[in-house]
Structure formats: C-alpha cells, structure tokens
Predict the 3D structure of the following.
Amino acid sequence: LGLFPARLRNAKRTGSRSCQSRSRVGSRERTWLKGDVGRGCVYVYGRDSPAAAPSDLRLVLCTVDTQASEICDREGRKNLFLQLHGDLVRRLEPTEKPLQIVYDYLAQLGFDDPFRMQEEAANSDLSCMIRFYSEKPCQVEQLDRILLSGVYNVRKGKTQLHKWAERSVTLCGTCLIVSSVKDSHAGKMHILPLVGGKVEEMKRRQYTLAFTSAGAQAQTYHISFDTLAECQRWHRQASTIVSMRFSMVDLSCYSLEEVPEHLFYSQDITYLNLRHNFMRTSGAGSLDSLCRFSQLKSLNLSHNRLGEFPESLCEISTLTELNISCNGLHYLPSQIGKLLNLQTFWLDGNFLTSLPEEMGNLQQLNCLGLSFNNFCELPAICEKLVTLDKLALAGNLIETLDLTVLNRMGHIKSVDLRLNNLKRAAADTLEGNKSVAYMDLRDNQMTDLDLSSLVSLEQLHCERNKLRELTLSGFSLRALYASSNCIVFSIWSACVPDWACEAKKLEVLDVSYNLLLELPSRILRSLSLRKLMVGHNHLQSLPPLQEHIPLEVLDLQHNLLTKLPETLFVKALNLRYLNASANSLESLPSTCPGEESLSMLQLLYLTNNNLTDQCIPVLVGHPNLRILHLANNNLQTFPASKLSKLEHLEELNLSGNKLKTIPTTVANCKLLHTLIAHSNEISIFPEILHLPCIQFVDLSCNELTEILIPEALPGALQELDLSGNTNLVLEHKTLDIFSHITTLKIDAKPSLTADSALTSVFWSHGVAEMAGQRNKLCVSSLALGSFAEGVEAVYGMFDGDKNEELPRLLQCTMADVLLEEVQQSDTMFMSNTFLVSHRKLGMAGQKLGSSAVLCYIRNEVADPASNFSLTVANVGTCQAVLCRSGKALPLSKVFSLEQCSEEARRVKEQKAIITEDNKVNGVTCCTRMLGCTYLHPWILPKPHVNSIPLTVQDELLLLGNKALWEHLSYAEAVSAVRHLHDPLAAAKKLCTLAQSYGCQDNVGAMVVCLNISEDNCTCEMHGLTLTGPGGFSSTTTKPATPSCSSGIASEFSSELSASEVSSEVGSTASDEHSAVGLDGSLLPRQERRCSLHPMPPSSIFQRQPSSATFSSNQSDNGLDSDDEQPVEGVMTNGSKVEVEVDIHCCKGKGLELEHPAAEYSSSAPGPEDDSGLVLIIRRQNSVNSNTVQRGVKEKCELQKSLSTCCLYGKKLSNGSIVPLEESLNLIEVATEAPKKKTGYFAAPFQMEPEDQFVVPPDLEEEVKEQMKQHQEDRADQELKEEHAASLPEEFDTAL
C-alpha cells in the first residue's frame, strides 16, 4: 500500500505545461485518499529545463511512511530531488519520506486539520512552494555562469599568421581554456586568465569574439561561433569576468554539490563564494579539493547544511576570511588553530556554546562573529586574541554583562550584545576600560546600566530596554541612543550627573519615548550637540537659550509644551529641522530682527497644536522653508502677502483647519510640488495648476463647487484628490482634461439602489493612502461594505513595504478566498483564508512579501444576544483597532522583531540572522507575512485571529499599515477621529498626522464608522413591540424602515431555513397588498426584521393550514412545469398554480391581539399596535418528501453562513436568496400579477370556468391515491400539533 503511481488522464498531453496548474487527482485517487489521513500524493516533475524536452509529470500516491528510495525504484530513477520556493534543489536521502516532508511543511505554515493538509498536499498550486523532481533541474542562465563550453574554430594571436583550427573551448571561473578536441584533458591546454583583460567583437568576421588577457605579455584568442545567440552568451559572461578588479568567483545559490573540475584551472582565484549550496565534504570537487586553490584568501560556505566543520579547510593556510555561518555546527575542531593568517571569522547562526583553546593561536584575528549561537557568557579565549577589535555576540543567551571580563580584553573596541537576555551589568573592580568605543545593548531586559568604567565609550545603543537609571562616562561620548525606555530623572536629575556635564563631544542624543519631565539648560547649552530627540516625553517647558548653539535637528513632538523658548530661532541659527507637533503651542517665537533673516530652518512641523492666524507672520522670518506642516490647528486665513515670501516652499500641509481660500500668491511658490489642504472650508479652487512643479494636490473634504482649469495642465501633475466635495460637479470636458493625470479621485455618483442605502445604515468607510517621499504606493486597501448578500462587510489593508505587486494581488483575491473558506469551516475560515492566499500568490510570493489585516463583519444568526461579530486576522505590521466607548481596543498582534518578543525568540531559535537594522536576514522586520516563501521557516503566513461580538458601544474600526501605527498610538488615533462624522476626513487626518510626526514612507489608513444601535433598526414594526431573543417584547419601539435588497432589512428573518421561506411571489405580493381576513377585518402582515432584531425561533408558532393561488408559468419547486414531478398540495391549472401554505399566527406571552383600524403598506409605517401577531408562510411537504427534505437540509446547511448563500445563490429584488440552479426557474414576481386586495397574498381571479385541473384517464387512480394519502398525512399532522400546542390561544386564519 505504500506506493501507487498514476499517469495523467490523457497520455497525449503528458508533460504539457499548460495542464500543470490543474489538479491531477481523479475520483479513483480521491477514493483511496479518503481511507486514511496518512495517505496522500506528491507530484514528481521531470527535468525542468527549457533546453530539454518536456518530460512526464507523474502523480505518486503514497503514505507518510513511503521513503524516497521506494519512489525511485518504482519510477526507475536513481535519485529524487526537492526544491523549495523555486530556489535551491537538494538531493533527498534514500530514507527521507517525501509525503511526510510535505505534511511537515504545511504544518509549519499553520494548517492544523489533517484532512485539510491532505487536501492541500493534493493541490498542484503547492508546487510554487515545494516540488519534487526525478532529475535535477538546471537553468541555462545558471549553467552559463558556472561553465560555458563547446567546440569552435579558434585562431591564436592578433595577426593572421595563424590558421583557424577546431578546438575545445571552456569558459570557467576566471580563465578561458583552449585544448585539442581529442585530447581535451590529457593533451596540451592553453589557459588564458581574463581578469583585467578584455573581450571584443570582430567586425571582419561574423559571430567572432577576441579574448585578450591582462599584462605586458598579453595573449589573444579569436573564437568563431555558429549563431548570434551563442556569441552573445559568451560575450556576456566574459565581460563580467574581465571587469572584475580581483579574481573572484561567485557560485552562490546554484544548488551545487561539487565544484566544477574546470574551475581548478583558475589558479588566480582569491575569493570564492559558495554560499547557499549543498557542498559535500568528500569526493571529487568536494570541500576536500579546495586546498588546490593556492592563492585562495576568502571563502564563503554559509548555508550549506554541513552539520560539522570540515577539517580539510584548516589546510588552506592562505585563508584570511572564512564564513561558515548557518551550518548547524555544534563545535569547532582543534585543527582550527592552523589558520594562522585568518583575520575575519564568521560563525553566526550555529549551535556553538564554547570555543577551543587552539583558537588562541589565531593572533591575526581582528573580527569574530558569534551571533545567534548558544553562548551564555563572553568567551574567555577572546582574552588571548590580542588583535581582536570587533566581537559580535548578538542573539545569544547571555544574562549578565561581566565588565570585569570585558576589561581584561583590553584590545576589543566594538561589542555587539543585541537580542540577548541581559538583565544587569556587573563589575568586581573599578578598573577602567580604555578600549571599548562602541557598545550595542538594544532589545534586552536591563533596568539599570552603569558603564562609567568604559571611559573611551563613544557610541552607545540601549534602545528598547527597561532602563530607569543610566550612568556613563562622558569624556569621549559622541552619540547616545536611549529611546523606548523608562528614564525619568536618571540622566538629568536635580543635580545633573557629572558625565552629562563632561560630555563635551556629544553630538547626537536620542531619549525619545521616555518619561522625562524636564530638560536641563546644560544640555541645550552644549557647543557640540547637533541632534536632539526628546519627543514622546512629558516636557512642559524648555530652558531659555542664552548662547548660540550649533543645534541642527530638534524633535519635540508629543510633549506638553505650551510655548517654545523666545530666543530659539535667534540662538539656534543652524537649526534645519524642527518638529513640535502634538503639543499645545499657541504662538511661535520670533526670528532675528532685521530685514534679512539668518534662519536656516528648512523643515517645520507644527501639526496638531493650537496655533492661530497670528503665527503666520513669524513664518516669513524663515525664507528657506521647504516643508511646512500646519495641519489641525485653528487657522482661518493665510495672508497672501506672507505666503508670497515663502518662495522656496516645496510641500505645504494646511489640512484640518478652517480655511476658506488658499491665497492666490501661492503661484509665487514655483518649487511647490505638494499641496495638502483637505478638511477645510475651501470653496474656491486655488491657482495651483499654473505651478510648473506641482505633483500632488489634495483638496478633499472641502466645499468646492467648480474648478477653473488653465489651457494646459502642468506635466508633472500626478495625483489630484477632489473626493468629499459634495457640491462639486465636473463636466465631461473637465474630466477629459484631467485624463492624463495618473490618479484622479472624485466622488462617484450616489447610487439609488437599495444595497447602497442599506450599507450606509450600519457602517460606512473612508480610505486614505499617501505615498510620502516614495515614488510608488505599495499599500492597497480592500473595502466591501456590502459583502456576500449585503448583511456583511469585509475590510482589509495590505502593505508590501517596497513592492506593489503583492498588495494588489491580495486586494483582488482575498475576498473571494474568504467566501470559499467560510463555506468550508465556521471556525478556521479566517486562518485558512490567509494560508490559501499565501499559496495562491504563486511565483510572485517566492521573493516578495506583504503584511495584511482582514476584518470580517458577519451576522451571527446563531447567537441572538449578538447581532454582528467582528473577526480580525493579521500578519506583519498591519493592524486593526476598535473604538469601544471612546477607548481603543487593539484587535491585532504586531508580528515584528521589535514589538513581539515571542516571535523574536522563535526566529532566534531557528537560527535566522537578524541584522543591525532589526531585519530577518536583512530583508524584513516582520516575522509573519504573506509571501516571502524563500525565508521559510523564519517567515510564516499563519495569522493572529481575534473574534469579538459587536455592541452598540462600538463606534469606529481603524485599519492602518506599519507607517501609521509607528507614529500614532492607538489612543491618539481614536481620539483624533472619534468626533469626525465623515470617515474619509477621518482617514485623511490619520495619514496627515503620521506624516507630520515624521513618517516619510507609504502610509495608509481606513476608518469604518459603526452604527450598530437601536436607532438604525430597519424592522417594519407597524407599531408592534420588538421581540427579544426569548420571545418577549422589547420596551421601546422604533419607526419602521422599508426593506431593501441587501439582506440586513430583508423580507424574512435570516434564522429561517429555506423551507420556512415562502416563494418570491408571496414575499413580493405581501409588499403590494394589504391583508384581509375571512371576516373582512384587516390582518397585520409579517413584519420585516433587521439584523438587530432577528425573528424569534419558529417553534413558538402553531401551524394552521391555508392556501393561496398565484399566477406563474413555472412551478413552486423551481423546476420547469414540463419536467417537475407532481407535488402534493400544488394544483396546476394551465398558467395558474395553486399552492397550499401555512400561515403561522400566534400571540406572544402576555400579548393581546388587536385588529388595526387601517391598512398596512410597505412604503409607510402603519399605526401603533401592541399585538404580537406574526405571519410566516411555510410550504407543505410534497409527495416526493425524501427528495424535498434532502434539498431543504442542504439549503439549511448552506445558509448557516451568509457568505455561503452568496456562493450558491443569487440575490433577488426582495432580498431573498435562492439556490443558483433555481435562479432561472422561479415563480414570477407578483408585480406582474393583477392587484386585488383580497388577502395576504394577491390571488389571481379565475376568469375561465374551463380552466380547471384536468386529470387524464390513465392517471386518475394514481392522483386519487395521492390525494387520499395527502389528506391522511395532514390529518395526522394536525392531530399531533393539537397535542403539542403550548400557546394559550390559536388563530385559524385563511387567505
């Protein structure tokens, strides 16, 4: 049972690439797979090379215990190869189990269900992530870079004295090898070094190249090729070699197991890169043969899955640099001491816990990389390495920084201890260390730090610790980075520490995101400080400036400042950057007196303050301003005379004020390329289309009515945002003029459909995306306010960081995947949505990645206490925040190295290399993403999923990408937009705030206004009290709202099954006619219920038989009248159909039935009525009850999810859902029937007496038998219902 091979269905199409994207599993294979979850299938591809003929693709059925050797024996192959993510290909060991490898891979991705894993393994799309080959695939481009060879006509020398002769020619490494055809390996060989030489095309002879070596005794060989393509291949590869300044060969990422034999002829090779291969340690061309390179100085063998350190490398005495990182090494051999010339040794990403004593012989070693190993302390052997000046120990298990041991290493200048478990620094003596100049202690757990013994310390990184006290030696200190700590007074207490006074060389000081309450004047009086970052603290004031200071950058955002020092712009003449946003400033200090200002200020950010028009004249004193942000202040006017003097202005942001116009003098700002003035009261379009450099204009959410367009628009204009101007109407001529703009945003014409009206009842959204200083926008949003049948919504945001392809792919496909997954699972649908979307990215997701957040609002019909639920899933740094009762409620988890210690620990344990900029392998800071499969298993697509019920206290749902949440806290984002009624203006404001707080990257924000409250009830109550979950009436009654087709205010309750819902005729007729009882009194029709007030359970109703007649040319069961079987209770009469239905009439507990005095209409609410009368129409069982019940059961299962209904049904005009296969066979809507007020339904009047049901003679007996059986069944049913009746009263109502 272990192995079952299967050919493709059609032998003629075997090996066709066009069919590889389709599933190969047939019914026979599926039957076998269902027997056991341990069974599965793997796809085995042939040699995937364009140069080779297409080979067969075979589907191999196997079990998790099937070994690769069994598959090879059955297929007649020697080996089986595994390729991950379309990249490297390795040979499987005979004992490895291919199917188990696939299942383990899927489990690492995040799949938990064994049956789902079996299904995913059978999907051919998985081949983009994991694929098996029967032969090792080779690409021509890779082969060209490794080895070019062939037999060509060759002539030696520059003159024509020599004749052309046929020779074997090989281009490998750094040399051109020319030899005899017969004795190519044994005869005479000519080796031509090409590094520093040249390669030229001969004009006199077609397809001929001249190869010339470097040096005074240069030699030349002319080689004639047969085709142009071949000549170009050789020319391209040879040009790369001759352009190198030294003899380097790069064979990285080629899946090599051995070095090509011809490479050993290049004896001048000094740098050899074999990174990301599968090099063998023994055999021909293996690592044992590398000692044949006599001049080799640098060797890179990282990521080769070696497991053990090859002792043969210790024989290459010429090595000065060796990189053997990420090879799973647990120890180093003692022979390592033979590498006496070694200067740089990289051992990162292994499992080392100690170093051998023999390493003390490496007296020339100056750089040692031991990051991401398992060291618990500083290696003592480093004391003997007297030339060692850089020690990297990031990502280890060190808990205590022993300064005593570090002091004994008097030669080390740089120490990297990032991402350890450091909790304290200890020193037994007060002896000072005069060598350490650079120390990196980021991302540890230290609460206090005393490095006063490091008297030569110049730069210290201690961000993201828990520091409350910090003591340093300031004699040599030049840069201190201590942001994201808990420092209060530890740096500058009432008595300023001596080291702070001694820091006369300090140039950069970053103490942002701390708890500072004041800033001593000594710091601002520093004559060396050029960059001061004190944002996100509690500063209430700044000390006055008495002397001139060289300060160039000052960040004061997010403090409690009410004013700036009066002499700031007078004493800090070198100031170029000032950010004082998010304070309480009401005025600005004046500049230098005199006609000509000396201010050098270029970037000024003053967003979110209390500035008024009085601050505008001060800005004139800064004529060099390039970027000016004054958003969200109290500006009402901007004087034209002042704006005209800011001639160097390039970016102007005046959003969120009360401006009515932009001065016409903006035309003097010839360098202006960005104008952002949304959320004002501007009614006149500014004269900005005359500016030659204008690129981006945002005038959304204003009061514009018209636009004056010049004859010619500026060619640089790329984006014009005019959305949110409700009174703006653009003519076709204007739109034609704007047609060349890359992005034009205007409001769409309001839709009059019921869907749009319904969507705005419970939620509305606004989206804002800004590219910032990037040339392209790599953020995409998904906003479906009417999802599935309209009762649900889906919102998402995708951030590709530097790529725009993946966010757009996810934007287009993720909603469809969600619909499919909701149908399959009620619990794991959101997680599977992300995992399937990850797979569907295909080849695009191999090298590119994207963060994502997806929010799904669904109608919880199963939980009467909760009307809507919100399910949020995310990967990466895109997040969602819910505003509940004015407070921020985070719904996402940030999967980044800096903010998630669990993920950082997982990545460290899997031996990924985290670079100094906190990125996995230098690529991304995220630990979970969609795409980037080549970084598996460090980067995973499994999302964080959170589901909560929505309540009336929920006001807003905020979505944003990394750039937004890096600059705005959750609380600030909620408080900034909570009072805004326009979600578009709210989203715009969030992006504007992020940009003013220092964001220069792509930023995206989405604001969803939630209105889940009793005020938005769309039930047509007609005076009836709302029924609670248990059948009790509610205490308040809301006005009725007409039903619409989106489904929230649908005709029937979403809790009813398909069998309980009447035909489309019935539901539509009920909208058009009033109901009259048999005694002529008016009966209330079935009320419409919204999602806030679902229909009470149907079990409280008592069935009462009745019947009605409808006009239709099709049958009630959705089948054509010619094809359907007789249905009990349905009497056909030509074009007329009589249907027996149940009308359920009951009175709730404690309710009295009253007859209204006026008729009800679907377009207007009726008079108040306190009765609990509810009418529901049910179909009677048919003769073929088994078939009907089975269909009803399937419908009920599908209707568990509203999205499922959308998958298998289509939405009708009255909001009901029918199966897709019946969509063409429905009973006609009652609007086409004669209108007559004769009952709850409008029964067509029978005009012709001969239009009666005629039974053929041969069927009379059968019909009589069926009718008799029907009467008996109905009598039994009525008898049972009488015994089971629980309500005090019953009403027998006929149509």
Observations:
- The mean pLDDT is 78.
- The first strand starts at residue 3 and ends at 6.
